[in-house]
Amino acid sequence: MNFLLLTLIKVALVAAVFLTALAYLQWIERKVLAHIQLRPGPYRVGPHGLLQPLADVIKLVTKEGFIPSHVNKFFYVLAPFVAVALALTTISVLPFGPEIQVFGIHTWMQLTDLKIGVLFVLAVSAVSVYGVALAGWASNNKYSLLGGLRSSAQMVSYELPYAVAIAAPLLLLNTLSFREIVNAQAGFYFGFIPRWSVFQLPFPQIFSFVLFLIAGFAETNRIPFDLPEAENELVAGYHTEYSSMKFAAFFMAEYANMITVALVATLLFLGGWHPPLPGAISNYIPTAVLVLVAAICFYHGAQPYRKWDRFTFPIAGVISLLLAGLFLVPLVQPILMPLFWFVAKAGLLLFIFIWVRGTLPRFRYDQLMHFAWTFLFPVAILNLLVTGLLVALFPK
Amino acid sequence: MDAFLFLVLAAIAVVSALNLVVQTHPISSALSLVGVMGSLAVLYLLLGAEFIAAAQMIVYAGAIMVLFIFVIMLLNAGGERLTRRSAYVKIFGVPLMALFLGLVSFVIQAALPRGEMVVFGAFTHGGPADIGRSLFTQYLLPFEVVSVLILIAILGAIVLARKEID
Q1: Contact between A133 and B128 using a beta-carbon 8 Å cutoff
Q2: What whole-number distance in Å separates Cα of residue A196 and Cα of residue B26?
Q3: Which of A5-19, A218-232, B45-59 has the lowest mean pLDDT?
Q4: Is A207 among the domain residues?
Q5: How close B1 comes to chain A (CA, Å)?
């Protein structure tokens, strides 16, 4: 098929899925946080608040886009665009699955594979601080300015352990292209331990993985490192003066960065789309999980707790069974299985992001800087040195 | 396509560089410099120097310029006021500038080897592996000397800053 047409279709598909995932990640975050705090969370719009993201989008789009009189107009309007554009860029070099065949056309489940894919991700994350810094400065508000200053200092500081933590697994995998990174993690030790970077010999990258996640929390301004928008000190930090779509742009950028960090961690450390179990067993796991979900649904449907449960639970059960059957169809299995494992791993990491937000308190600002420079960075360097030494001593 | 991209990005780089000088506010100037760095990075990419392009974005457009902007924001520097130009500048400014540019372009043309045209896509050894190999074999000594030099500069900066605090 025509390269241009194929690329356009893939871009449209990826953009649609990514933007929907952004909106629903926010719903999932609110739900998980609510359940951690023993509340139901969003419940009114649609069943279990499932249409809440849609309502939020409509609300944000139809709100008045208010520009305060004292701001630097050009940079005030530019900042959210920079933030969201850079946040959405990284997805274009990340693969979601292996080469597949649809209607006789061979294509990779990836928009484009760069030889310097990892460096591209680092470059975009290095530049993405401008959105936040500019927003803080252009708002001409002391709280915004403090938020912008904090965020630029924080992101420059945490960029170092972030990059060094990425460098260590690259020594093992010996490539910078994401496609080859995932290929280098295929296979199993002794037939059951997957050769993902976190388990790969000569030096399992478990420390790099933890360092990467900690630095990733700081890079995405998430709790416990969300000092740029610490609401008890800075109102809302750098986006205090923003409303409607311009505020939504910052919001989207934050969640897009979160998804990007989770996907990069999955690709670099958790073996991308490779299954955790050898052989054909792993192909039946999604079916088994979905059948279990269906069984639970039917059980609760038979013993209704609320009035509508006898209808809603069986419907959910039937849908689960249909999905379970879909994973067994040989025609779509090679497409769905890699996607399933990829999304499962990235989803687990995103869950950890939300879990941490519901669990940990915020750092103090001096603690944040102290932690980066006196603990995280030296440990990352040490980890890199040990990895380099072991890779040099035990070449493949 | 390559030539078209080159023209567009070269134009962006030149306009950003001019804007850097013309703007009166430090933040606008700093961001124009980011524009110059970014378009240069894409030009490197067009020439096949992938690693240099990525390093340009990470180090220059990312780390260094973020520090510039950080300092400008921290000092809250306002726009600079233009003073009236002196009579000498008004008379001799433009001719001297033209003379200087002409001299520079003449020297560059005379110094460069002749007869070799740049071909887009002809250079394929710009990947990280090639750069790393030549840095650690052919250019090992200069590479290590530069790293020691940078270390000395960092230590010097710390010593100077310490003196002021004490």
Answers
A1: no
A2: 48
A3: A218-232
A4: yes
A5: 15
